[in-house]
Prior knowledge:
The structure holds two protein chains of two kinds. By secondary structure, chain A is α/β, with parallel strands linked by helices. Chain A is built from ten helices and 15 strands.
Amino acid sequence: MDYFISRYLGACELLPSRLRLRALAVSEALMAEAEEIRLRAGRAPAVATASGEHDLDGPPVTPDDILDTLTRAARGSLHTFAGELAAGFLTAAGGYRLGVCGRAAMSGGECVGLREFSSLDLRISKEVRGAADGIFGEICSGGRVRSTLIVSPPGGGKTTLLRDLVRTVSDLGFRVSLADERGEIAACSGGVPGFDVGARTDVLTGAPKAWSALTLLRAMNPQVLALDEITDPADARTLLHASGCGTAVFATVHAASPEEAMARPALAGVIHIFEKAVLIERREDGRRASISDMPRRT
Amino acid sequence: MMRAVGAALVILGSSGAGVAAFRAAAARVRTLSSYAAMLGVLRREIYPELATLEEALSAAIRADAAPDFARSVLRGMRSRGGADASECWLEACSAAPQEIRGILAELAPLLGRCSAEEQSRALEKAELRIERLRDAAEDERRRSGRMYITFGICGGAAAAVMLL
């Protein structure tokens, strides 16, 4: 069976039966292209592809559908994932990430939980071996790995590219430490990565990136440190620390261009550690990753 | 001679019936205690430990607290990839003693689907209700246990006298 279709079918397993049957009724072409399954209370469920959302026939989604999907993803134990849900997501076995919206319960200015779920975004993560082939030569040459920032708007495929870059560098013999906060890069289950992240990759799952990165630097002696989605100044400070230790860094950030990434407050003061920038763009014929030297501030 | 043997058998049979009734009452107490203990283990594992339902059920099995019930739910969950905990719990309820089936079934829509604190409160309530039933069963066992045995022996003796 086509790998992309099997990933879609795996995502359907997380849906309650009344929605699963409808999701399984779509064409194989749509299954293969699907990037997300979207549930919004009171609206038709939809399958999202690069070209847009395709509504599924039948009655609208109910809040119970969303709760049931989350409960299935949490293997019947939603309470165990309360911390992740307060941050707006939950990662299910197989590396499927479920983003959720609902009513936030606040305490002391912080969100301590979500309830009355209203929307759910079930992302169908996919392993694309060879995704980094076109850029790898410039990142790793002369026995040296260059710190690289992967840039794209949300849904551009940063995580997929980062995963393949990690795998390639790791299989080449470099020790890679992966701070996988949301568990969607390696999709570890029972300590074993569900996606191939390379022979010499050590994965720390579930902890905040800044804490994970420092722990990995202290404990695992990495030659390359990889982490997804730099959003917090604390993450950026950790990157500075890693760079100061002689460790190359692979990171991703939401932005439309390297220049836009440089303007992000979280990255101010840390952008200089990156030698290379990879920009992923969506085009009509699919995604394209291009690599360049990281622009410097003038 | 034959009458004497017959009388002895009647005494033994009647006493045995009394003892069996006494043992059934004791078994009922043990069963209720076991289910209450299981709910206690689940409660502590879910809050504050935040263990998954599968882990909590495994802990109940290790603690020998209603292990057959816990094993049945666990088997159902594992065969369905960990999902549908509510359905698996409800299915297992059908094999639980009739008098606590309703109490256990009330937990089905809550387990794994709401906050750990809410589940803990629901489990505690159910545990208390079963403990109350257990205490009543224990009183009943004490009160009527000796009576069953005495009636058994006396009834047997009376029958034996008539036979002789």
